[in-house]
Amino acid sequence: MSRFFSSRNAAVEPYTPGEQPRDMQYIKLNTNESPYPPSPKAAAMAAEAAARLQLYSDPQCRDLNAAAAAHFAVGTDELLFTNGSDEILDYAVRAFCGPERGMVCPDITYSFYPVLAAVHRIRYTEIPLTKDFRIRLEDYRGVKGMVLLANPNAPTGIALSRAALEDFIAEDPERLVLVDEAYVDFGGESCLPLIRQYDNLIVTQTFSKSRSMAGARLGVGFAAKELIADMNAIKYSSNPYNVNSMTMAAGIGALLDGEYTRSCIAKIVDTREVFVEKLREMGYDVLPSSTNFVFAKSPRLGGQELYRKLRERGILVRHFETPRLRDYNRITIGTPGQMDALLAALRILEKTEEGK
Q1: Are the C-beta atoms of residues 244 and 57 closer than 8 Å to each other?
Q2: Are 127 and 133 in contact (CB under 8 A)?
Q3: pLDDT in tens, 16-29
Q4: Are 338 and 317 in contact (CB under 8 A)?
Q5: Rounded to an integer, what distance in angstroms lies between the CA atom of residue 185 and that of residue 131?
Q6: What is the Cα 132 distance to its own chain's centre?
Q7: Which of 180, 172, 159 is nearest to 222 (CA)?
Q8: 3-state secondary structure of 280
Q9: pLDDT value of position 19
């Protein structure tokens, strides 16, 4: 680091994105991207918007807000679009956390949460998952702070029911709960219908996964209008033009093309179920997944070794070198052909290991 780097940031450990290598052509199953292109309508509307890039984007996202309000059955003052869902998480932490309110999260979850806490100097409390990698909500009762829950959780893929979350949200109106639903469309139950009943709930979603728009960077938060107003105050104090014109147009196109989105989701879920069944037939320990990825452990190979050997064969998966996770790898669900190629590589590796 340079001699000008602020000492307040010296201890921050940055978030580590999934690798994006360019040294060869890989089957890329490491960053939970969709294997399918965005909606043709989204692509066409983004291309049309490109002709007006000399103009600033609408800071109020009015057309996108109107389309989303109709799609999600909420008011335009009950949602806020951002540059990826990481930004809505950042706005929430900056708006609602501070000396009087820290953050409370599972010890195994989206690794961006502790980075946000460190950057903003927020007290961060971790609640351990159970031995079978589940969130136990009773462990959060009585804790002080904004509770952030990825549901379904990452990297485990395990989901909580909406009923269980509603009970948790309702039991303490003074406890703010943020439910991060990045993967909800692949098998979870959204808490979005609850935002009008509970003014201590924030729901965040992304267009990166089920709507095939990871490269466009579009996230959205839903909450009571007072909470949205608070987060808008943060937005207009930092990045008023946070969503570009092409992304807004693509977002509208994706919302208007729900049939295409549902078709892609169905293909991914079907592929996931077939893949999980075949992994289990090979003796793999696979956690139950409600996402577009699975979290799996080989019966013979360590997680790091399996990750490395797959990479040598041109297949990328995600490995986390932490004590409770190091035996597992997170595997994005790709096309059926990509998953067949991965299974073929796994069978060769397992057979080789078995013969030693």
Answers
A1: yes
A2: no
A3: 777 777 766 899 99
A4: no
A5: 26
A6: 21
A7: 180
A8: helix
A9: 76
d(CA 264, CA 283): 29
DSSP 137-150: GGGGTT--SEEEEE
Strands 285-286 and 293-297: antiparallel
For the chain, strand residue ranges (E) read 27-28, 79-82, 103-106, 124-127, 146-150, 177-180, 201-206, 219-223, 285-286, 293-297, 315-316, 318-319, 328-332
Residue 356: predicted pLDDT: 63
Bridge pairing between strands 219-223 and 201-206 = antiparallel
Half-sphere exposure of 166 (CA within 13 A, CB side): 12
Question: What average pLDDT score do residues 222-248 get?
Answer: 98
CA dihedral 337, 342, 348, 352 (to 10 degrees): 180
Domains of the chain are: 7-36+259-354 (3.90.1150.10), 40-257 (3.40.640.10)
Question: For residues 39 and 188, is the Cβ–Cβ distance under 8 A?
Answer: no
Round to whole Å and give the CA distance between 69 and 64: 8
DSSP string across 143-189: --SEEEEESS-TTT-----HHHHHHHHHH-TTS-EEEE-TTGGGT--
pTM: 0.95
Chain segment 159-201, per-residue pLDDT in tens:
999 999 999 999 999 999 999 999 999 999 999 999 999 999 9
With 70 as the cut, is the pLDDT of residue 355 above it? no
